[in-house]
Every structure is written in C-alpha cells, then in structure tokens.
Amino acid sequence: MALGISKKLEFLDSQPRLKALFLLLFRADDFLTSEKLGERLNVTSRTVKSDMKQLKESVATNKEIQIVSKRSLGYKLMIENQEDEAAIREFFQMYSSLSLDSEFDHRVRYILRRFLSADQPVKVEEIQQELIINYSISRELQKVKEMLAKYGLSLNVRPHHGMVIEGPVFKKIMLTIRMYRYFDKNTSNDFGIPEYNAFFYCDRAEKEKIHNTFFKTITNSRIVFSDINAERFIIYLLYFRNQVLNGEEELLDLPKINFDYKPTDEYELVVELVQKLRNKFTGFDFSIEVIQFLTYIAIFSTDLYRFVDCSKENYNHLIQLAEETRNFLLREISEYLQIDAFDDYTCLKDLLKIMIPISLKIMLNVSDSVDLRYKDFHDTGDQPLLRMYMKKIKKTFAMTYQYEFSKREIHLIFLTFCGMLNRIVLEHRKLRLAIIAIDGRLSTQQLKFNLQHNFSEYIERIETKVLYELNSGDTQEYDYYLCSTYGKNLNITHQPIYYVKDELSEFEYIDSLRTIFFSAFAYESKLPPIDFQKVSGKKNGLIKKTDDVLVVDKEIQLKIYLKLTATKQEFTIFEETPTVFTLQIGVSIKEDRQKLKMLLNVLNRIIAEPQVLVNAVQQEQISYESFLR
C-alpha cells in the first residue's frame, strides 16, 4: 500500500507548483488558508484555489490521502495511517531534487545559475527563451539582485551585450555552491544548464572514493562537520578540481583580513586532505589561495560542540569579533526581555560557538549558509514572543554588521535563547494537603502514594483525616483538601477541595493531580489581575498600542499588545466577537525572571491553544489557572 502511494505521487515531479502545495500541506500540523499558502508560494490566493482544485482531483483516486477544506480555516491534508505517512516522507527524502519552491523560485534559481556559469554577458531575451516565457522577468531579476547583495555582488548591464555578475571571484564561487543546494551524496542533479552542471561533474565511482578519503581523514582529525556541511565541502572540492582539470584556475580575490588561518585545526585538516587526494587522483594540485579559501569554508562548516575549542589559540582574532557580536545579541535580547541574559553561562558559551564562523563571514562580507532541503525554520508556534523579538534583532544586526542571518542561523540563535528561558525554574512553595478518608483510611493509600511519588517536591506534608475530624475544628488549616468523587454527595465545606476521579489510567491519574499544585506557583500574586471586557465596534481609547504586537491568525483570532516596561500593570482581555480577541498586557519585568517565565507560560499556552481563552472567558471568574491547567 505504501509503495503504491509513492508511485502515485510521482506526477508531482513534473508539476512544481502542485508539488509545493502538497509538501506545504504535508508538513503542516493545522489547516492553511489560501492566503497563507499564496504568501509562501509567491502567488495569489485565487491561483492557490485553482491549483488546489487540480491537486484534489489528482489525488482523488488515492483513498489513503484526502485534502479537506473548511470555510475560514483553509485546507488540510489527511493521511489514513502512519505507514502511508512514513512512505510519503521517505519518498520525498529519496527524491531530494523535489524542492519546496514555487515556479517563481525555480525561475530565480535558474537565472542565478545561468549568470554564474556564463562566460559572457546574458541577455534577458535569452533567459526568456530558455524558460519558455514571454512576460517580464523584472520581479525575478529583483530577487536575483537581493541574493547577490548578500554576497557583496552586483548585476551590471552592459549595453547591447546583456547582464553580468560583478564582484570578487571567491564570492561568485560561494554563491555558485549555494545554488547547488542539494548536499546529498546520493543525488546527481541536472540543473538544466550544461555549463553549471560541468562545475561539479565527477565519475560516480571516483566520487565515492573521494567521499571515502574525505570521511576517513576528517574522522581521524579533531574537526567535526555536520553531515550537510560535509557534503557541501565535497562539492567545493569537486568544483576546484574541475577548474584545475580544465585549466581554468583564476585568482580568488581573497581580501586581507585580521585573521591568521594557518594555526587552526581546519587548516591542518585541509592540507592533509588535499595531499591525500593529490596522491590518489588527478586535479587536486590546488594553489595556496585555494587552500586558504577551503580553510575558510572548513571554519564555516565546523560543528563547535566543545567550548574548550573556542579559544584564541585556535581562532585568534575571530574570537574578538565573535565575542563582540555575541555580546551585541545578548544586549539586544536583554533589552527586549528585560532580564540580564549575560547571567546564563550556557547561553554565553553556546552563542559564542555560533558566532565564530559567522564572524569570519562578516570579515569576508558574505552572508552565506546552506539550504536544508525541506527543513526551513518558519514559525512553528513555540515561544512566539521570542520569535517576534528575533525578527527585530535580525534587522538590527544586519544594519550594524552588514550581515544577514540565514533562517538556519537565526533558528540556532533562537534555540540558544530558548534554552536560556527553559532554564528559568519557577520557584514554588510547598503545600500542606489533607486527604479526606470518607471510605476509610485504607482507601486513600493509592492516592497518597501517587502524590508522594510524583509530586513530593510540591508537598510539605500529607495527612489523612476523616471528615468528622476536620469538622471538629481541632485540626489546622490545609492548602488543599482531596476527596473521592463520592464526597460530592456530602456536605463538605472545606476549600479549596479537589475531587479525585475514579477509574483513571495511571497517566490520566497523575495528570489530573497536577491541577491542585498550580497555586504553589503564585501566578496571581506575580502577574496583574485579569480584567475582561466585551467590546463592539471601534476600540479607540481602550487599547494602548505598543511596538510589541503579536497577531495570531487562526480560527480564533488574537491580537496581543504587550509592554514589558509598563508602569501600570494590567492584563485586559477584550472580546470583540466569540472568535476575535484583543489582549492588552502591561507588566514591569525589571529582571524578575520568575515573572517573565510565568508570563511566557501564559502567552505560549493562549497562542498555541486559543480555545483555552474562549473557555476561560465563559467562566464567572477568570484566573491564570484557567489558561494553564
């Protein structure tokens, strides 16, 4: 059955826009509207609807796959079982030439490859003829210029001759490799441009031997590359080898920078590797400049896992810039979150590891990265406030250092800051609990065991009492009273009380008990009181707009105005309709990590599951427990 699905999906290879739609739906956890799909594919929502109709018809014969649509929600791909889903995932990983690009993206990449591999100016008419189109490619050329700018390159027009890329040779080579994209040793790509394909040609058997030589050499060194960076490095080797074999070596125009590359372990690796390749194969007689450049690429590719390697002995002047840029990021995130990010030593270390290779790219004035095939780093919904601030930091960093983080790099920095936030442990007091033994003390043993076994850190003590003992008034007050559900039939006045359900599974049983320990964290005392207002029409005068705005466009729409330096503390919920809400939140963090963590917990839950907000406003009294339990 699974193999049948893969066979039926082969038609997507010849229809890139339908393929892109399918992959977007396949990777989505929820419904996607035609507007959102259009944004991702650079087409109109009308085009998406037309393509979706065609895609539905194309997969209609597959009972295992269905595309369902709901008004206001959009489209969702439904797959019958996990075996079929795994087969589809494997199919698209096997055929890595299937990309998640729109036709617009395909044209942009084709034009870039065409320019990069041309030995003379290229006219617009030539490109149009090759792409079999008769309309303007001005939008595509604008996108090409944006990509060139990341590498400090420009697209210049030579009257009556055409267009040509101008700039340092090494930057052209880096962009040429970037456009290769699919760093997979099992893939042989035909990009439709013979001159571009020729850059990377290698006999399959010989390529496998080069692979083996590289992996044996790097395995015996102190250097570690990620798998994708390792494959990319081999593409660089093939590129320069073909330059030597074709007698086309040229000066790389490498700039003089304040960095001595020869003391690095990466230089030692490159020299050893090239010597071994030179002994076994022809074409590896690389110049000193190429060795230097390959050392730079190796430093870009190094997986700096051990902090001990991030030393001035290894990277000399790179460390100074890495520390400067790391501190810039830490100051920015500290200002946004209103806490001192420098206090987190793990964050301090991990961020330096990320910034060392980026610092070398800053020195070379190139914003270079790798494309991880179908893995991109769009907003997955976790830590939305941090994601919003990361977008602002990315812009500020680009203006300051003329370097644009890739999606992969900004994701790594995001994960580092996530770790800092996750390491904030909420303080809590320990509770005094009373278990009401209305059916005898023996009946409470399992409950008492589960409480002590799973929640001991939250408990000061547990005492088992029969109801008449509690009613006598001789016992002290407790933070919580627990009783079996049968107690609902009795006149029990002790509060707060939690009735433990019978016949729950072990995990349900433990999960249900978590509710009673919410009060141990004192959300209500740390965060502002919650105010709820129903509004209609314009809200002018009610909402104090700030620069920090989170918008959640789901079935339940949210707009959150947030200020972490507010003098007036507030948490106001405005309900415009049963599915449209505006939140006005003002808190004064002032380096109170506990308050920040609590606020993030609340916001993360509301944004991830807006239904909890709908449920909360239907209660007589809204509390933070309403959002988190």
From TrEMBL:
<dbReference type="InterPro" id="IPR013196">
    <property type="entry name" value="HTH_11"/>
</dbReference>
<dbReference type="InterPro" id="IPR050661">
    <property type="entry name" value="BglG_antiterminators"/>
</dbReference>
<keyword id="KW-0804">Transcription</keyword>
<keyword id="KW-0805">Transcription regulation</keyword>
<dbReference type="Pfam" id="PF08279">
    <property type="entry name" value="HTH_11"/>
</dbReference>
<feature type="domain" description="Helix-turn-helix type 11">
    <location>
        <begin position="17"/>
        <end position="76"/>
    </location>
</feature>
<dbReference type="InterPro" id="IPR036388">
    <property type="entry name" value="WH-like_DNA-bd_sf"/>
</dbReference>
<dbReference type="InterPro" id="IPR036390">
    <property type="entry name" value="WH_DNA-bd_sf"/>
</dbReference>
<protein>
    <recommendedName>
        <fullName>Helix-turn-helix type 11 domain-containing protein</fullName>
    </recommendedName>
</protein>
